[in-house]
Amino acid sequence: MNNIHVTTTVNGDAVEFLCDPRETLLDVLRDRLTLTGAKEGCGTGDCGACSVLLDGRLVSSCLVLGAEAEGKSIETVEGMANGEVLHPLQRKLIEHAALQCGICSPGILIAAKALLKKNPDPTESEVRFWLAGNLCRCTGYDKIIRAIQDAAAEMRGAA
Amino acid sequence: MQYLTPTSFKDASALAAGAKGTSRFLAGGTDVLVQMRADIFTPDILIDLKHIPGVADITQEADGSWTTGVAVPGAVLREHQALGRDWPGLVEAVDLIGSTQVQGRATMVGNLCNASPAADAVPAMIAAGVEVSIIGPGGTRREKVENIATGPGQTSLAKGELITAVHIPARGTNGGDAYLRFIPRTEMDIAVVGCGINLRLDGNTITEARVALGAVAPTALLVKEAARAIIGTSLDEEALVALSAASIAACNPIDDKRGTIKFRKHIAGVLARRVALEAYARAGGTS
User: Fold this and answer.
1) What value of ipTM does the predicted structure carry?
2) In a domain, B188, yes or no
């Protein structure tokens, strides 16, 4: 099988990798670039645990081929904190205890980041619809929604 | 599997036509990659269309009609305000497909070529009178959307043929379209029944109408009898009853886990009425 050489940008860093044409972007991130923040829940685009931004657009990385990343810019949960300083969404998720097992959290964080960039002041209903593709089997969602709205308020104030 | 990135539709067509084994075209990948991951189908060659110039563009032509590229994802379509003003029903139908993440990748053309009877975009496209351009080994042709799917997962596209652009008619004056589907919850599900209607008014009288139903037959249906039931009327109760009856009569559904034949037929009648009222209001009519 011929591997494909791909040059891309991940969290602002230039990255090169070789991948099998069938490998998904999620496989590449986790197994070749050791960025294990994005999780594989379903592998078929239903659960949102593998959410990343591809040229700023929220996508499931299990439904993108590694080869498709050529020349693109990818953002994962690993790029959210600034060194030791957590992103407000990460801090609020902890403050609100909006996670238990944590499998969904990286996807929730990336999806919420994309939402707040598009809509800095979303209603509860807007947050719930935006996150309809991010499944959480622990929290019942309420704390997640509150954490995101709290982070949104802080980010609006700080801006 | 080989992954190929042609930079013209002609090359893409030639690659598929000359393929020794199986081939698939890749735009958004939300069906193709799922089929690969689930070991349902892995092609010998996968032809990514996103390196072809123009595939991500949305363009309004001089006559007011719209041309969209084959790789325009739902999220981009949704963000295009002028297109949404002209064709809210079509844009809302596409927007119903999947999650925010799926919307970031999924395309109208992919929804059409995947040929699910329950595809949300397809009844709205048929109602709007959308056509597609096709290229193949024999040259180019233009086809109505209702002539693409021939059965579940089957299309009229021959080996080496692929869609190169989507043509949405000019909205024109006093027109409106709408699409609704029934699902047992509010998000993230597959249509049990879908209905798209597009109409035009003269005063309060409907002069043109197209009614399309999804998930009630092996392919989405253009129901001319249902359109005839409301053309020439001001969508009064009598017309709505006739519309429902014609819609139900056109259904040829199956029993499955999402709905029974009886339920699907009933819902088709209910949705046709609601969608017609919405399209009528959008066209500026008062009944």
Assistant:
1) 0.96
2) yes
